[in-house]
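Quick bug: Mitochondrial glycoprotein output formatted oddly.
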Amino acid sequence: MAFSSILRRSGSLARPLVIAGQLLKNTQRQSSYRTVLLSAINQSVQKDSAVPTFGFSSLAYKNKPTSDENLLRVIESEITCAQETDNHTVDEAPSNFPFKILDQPGQQTIMLERTYQGEEIKVEVHMPDLVTGEENDDGRDDDDESERASQSSIPLSVSVYKKDGPYLEFSCVAYPDEVVIDSLSVKNPEPSEDQIAYEGPDFQDLDEGLQKSFHKYLEIRGIKPSTTNFLHEYMINKDSREYLVWLQKLKQFVEA
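Here's what came back:
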């Protein structure tokens, strides 16, 4: 099964934990297919390196090494599987989604933009960090940290700008039904190259009341579970689309 088929489109945005369950169930099944593809690539490289080179000719172009033919068959099989099992549509944002989505094909991230009471808010959303569950069996107690470690997540970089002066930059991780702030810094629009800016203390070292206030600060500006749960599904489908395009480019290269 295709790498991206580990995560199918969730039936409901109100059930983000179902997404995490699908990740745990399906991620393990994708490794064998990827192993086959990588094995075929390695076999092609190793065999072709031992073939004497006589320069470019029409005969050499027509008679591709058997290893290349095998590689093409594996790639074509993976493309077919990806086309049949993955969701390649672009998700339409719900009517109450507070951001404009800027999604450029071929990129690993998307950008979100909105204005709020004179502020400009930009969010860089990365591909999900997928969790299989195997790497988290470390015997830890059932605390918040261990629970998060067993869930897939989406890294976010949130920037809040005002008309003039510095801006705030939050480094966040969105889990199902929870947004965690990892760091907060005050950035200058034109940083000095001769000085190292003070980034502030670790966010978890701040007063608990201050931490809660900044979580509320982001929630009011649209960084909340109802937003990030949709983004989780959106980025899963984007990964499926990008993976299929990557496979097609790989096939074109091997065929050339």
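Actually, after a second look the formatting is fine. The chain is about 45% helix and 15% strand. Closing.
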